Amino acid sequence: MIELVVEKSLKGVTGNYQLDVDLHLAAGEVVALFGASGAGKSTLLRMLAGLISPSRGYIKVDNVLWFDSAKQICLPPQKRQVGMVFQDYSLFPHLNVRDNLRFALVDKKDLKAVDAMLVLTGLENLQDRFPASLSGGQRQRVALARAMLRRPRVLLLDEPLSALDHAMRTQLQDEILALHRRFETTIILVSHDLAEVFKMAQRVCYLENGKIREDGSPLKVFSPQHLLGRWQVHAEVLAIVPLDMLWSVALLIGNQITRIVASTDEVQGLNPGDKVLLFQQAFHPMLIKIP
Length: 291
Description:
The chain has helices spanning about 40-50, 95-105, 110-120, 135-150, 165-185, 195-200, 220, 265, and strands at about 1-10, 15-25, 30-35, 55-60, 65-70, 75, 80-85, 155-160, 185-190, 205-210, 210-215, 230-245, 245-255, 255-260, 275-280, 285-290. It is α+β, with helices and mostly antiparallel strands.
């Protein structure tokens, strides 16, 4: 069980506001934090990791206090059983893959754990290579393997796949879920990709200006009644046409035909005739396929 009850003054895209969150997570849960940039998602991850201290409140993991402003408790990051994977990999460029993983060991002599993780994540053939010679997907796999070697109580994922192409992103999503099933680690994921959230998360917490506005399953949070956008309409896909690296999607809304520009992730799995929900997210139209 993770209990996170914190407050902190922040500056977001709409100005200054107070981060005020009371969040309780069950052990082994996969939870996505969703919301506009500056809503407080990454700040919450950094508070859990010990990289930022709340101004008030407490963080308790498995009945162990990691932070408590009243009791003046603040465990340093190295004493928290947490793994964190960022978008930018954060690997040591002067260390090869094996030594990057070895750095994460609590017991530096436990080399069998490194061997096992290399095999488990498909990195055994890359163990002697340095980060500069790896692809983006390979680097992120190393970062994930290194985080899991700490046997974390909580794995924090701050948009770790957003810079990857769709195929690699899908593959690493599957690998993260496989590691989750194997180690039963609690995962907190920050993502702006709705397809990724639906695939990976059992629960979504939608943050807006430092507060959790919606909390529930992806279907509940992104239903028409609880949709995050300022407006939403039902539509039918008429055609999907490639536009260089983007896509033009023709939609039938009532008796009107309109076109929007969508990303590859948004049109993945969409076909003419599909029913979708069109909504506004951060001034950009987005699509959700209706099952």
